[in-house]
Amino acid sequence: SGKKMAVNMLLVVILASAFHITQATTTPNILFILADDLGVGDVSVYPSPTQKRLHTPTYEKMAKKGMLFTDAYAGYSVCAPSRRTLMTGFHTGHFNLNNGGDALLSNKSHTVASLLQRAGYETKLIGKWGLDGNYKDPQPPTDGFPTVQGFGKFYGQSDQFQCHDYYPPFMYNDTLNATVEKNVGASVETCGNDHEKCAWSGDLWTADAIDFIHAQSAANPWFLYLAYTAPHAGAIGNVGENDIPVPGVSKGPYAQESWPQVEKDFATAVTLVDAAVGNVLDAVDAADMSQSTVIFFSSDNGAHSEGGHQYTFFNSSGYLNGFKRSIHDGGHRAAFLAVWPGMIPANSISHHIICFYDFLPTALELAGHKGMIPEVIDGKSFVPALMGQSQPQSDFIYHEYSGCQDPVFKGVKFPHSFGQNIRMGNWSGVCVTAGQPCSPTGMKDQTFFLYNMATDVGQKMDVSSQYPSIVKNILTIMSTQYNKSYDPAFPPSIQTM
């Protein structure tokens, strides 16, 4: 009987191992949810010096069910370029930016969506795109349009300026112009005091995401990219950025606070997006797909100070230095949460340094198609870190920004119109110039800051004079990574895969 028990125990172990392998190799669905201009300090599960914490119970639930990344970076400190890094796997040193903010894709570009589509995924984008030039009015799809860039379905706004309108009169439904009847002629007057007579884009997108999830078959994997436009500043019926006009503020959790109205609007926007994310996650559960779906949540850049809102009011950058359009971490460091029950360890924290351009190779590895990861991209898969395994840090993380608005530069007499940032282990190097990429040999008006992130997450103490070799190494990386002649289109071998 002892021998029989040993055989049975061995059988249990083998079956358990087989089950784990089956789980691990099942092609998962991938859901990436993006907020717009949400600061790390606005997410209650991240530390902040403020006493005025906003209500974000969904993000707290995600952190308990999955993994929180402490050192995650968006790709840029404003919208469109950051989203391009997320989609393409390239950092901004390797593609051209017009006017510092445009990052339009060409018909030679390849995206995480186009590669997952080739791998057999059904792909859909809901919400903000921002990588295409369909400005304000509907037009035929251009090269950068989502359905040209790998998304089989699209419901949302394609141009980043168009996305400022929280109550748009039309929404793209695939390539068609779908009129939103409640928003035709939308204005502050016609939408009412709480804007509830009109249809907020965020509600439309949440409903569409839920419908998409329930329509999916367990037999076919899907990739859904759900990109909200809140709490970015916006307007009603136009593309201005003079408010954060979400609905229901007077009935919301902050209605009785003695804050300026615009701060109540901002706070409500943060909590409404959190609630919307919660509804989408509930739909995944209701469809019995939570075990087979990897869910990511993040923001496209740091906290904003626009539309009358001040990022300092809620300490939206947390302990970080700077805010949107800064080359310090407050400009591009972001909340980043990941959930996959049974695979990503619950209630876990990762200090692995990641950036948006790491998402493409990560998604392809999760999909079981590591062989489709192009060698030419900048990103590195962080699947081992997601699974709770130790993983070597990337050699460096690269950022740049043209038009830096860092608080540290206020009152400085010489111009700082261009900045670069390298995160290399615990070192963070920030270099600013009058417009040219930084040089290892120095140049007029070049200023360099070095921070030890292990002891100075707020980047307050410049230690560059103590570590000249580190400074030179980082400057060399900055100069070599700024290469705008680099073609971010994948080579022909990838295009025909």
Walk me through what this model shows.
This protein is an alpha/beta fold. It has 12 helices and 16 strands. The protein has a 10-stranded mixed β-sheet with strand order 7-6-5-4-8-1-9-10-2-11, with helices on both faces. Strand 14 and strand 15 form a beta hairpin.
Gross morphology:
globular
DSSP helix fraction: 25-40%
**Mean pLDDT, all residues:** 89
Task: Note the run of SSEs as H and E.
Answer: HEHEEHHEEEEHHEHEHEEEHHEEEEHH
Strand content: 15-25%
Largest sheet data? 10 strands, mixed
Counted by DSSP, the helix tally is: 12
Structural class: alpha/beta
Topology:
Layout: H1 2-25, E1 29-35, H2 57-65, E2 67-69, E3 72-73, H3 79-88, H4 112-118, E4 122-128, E5 153-157, E6 170-173, E7 176-179, H5 188-191, H6 201-214, E8 222-227, H7 261-286, E9 293-299, H8 329-332, E10 336-339, E11 348-350, E12 354-355, H9 359-366, H10 383-386, E13 397-402, E14 418-424, E15 427-433, E16 447-452, H11 468-481, H12 492-495
Parallel strand pairs: 1-8, 1-9, 2-11, 3-12, 4-5, 4-8
Antiparallel strand pairs: 2-10, 5-6, 6-7, 9-10, 13-14, 14-15, 15-16
Helix pairs in contact: 6-7
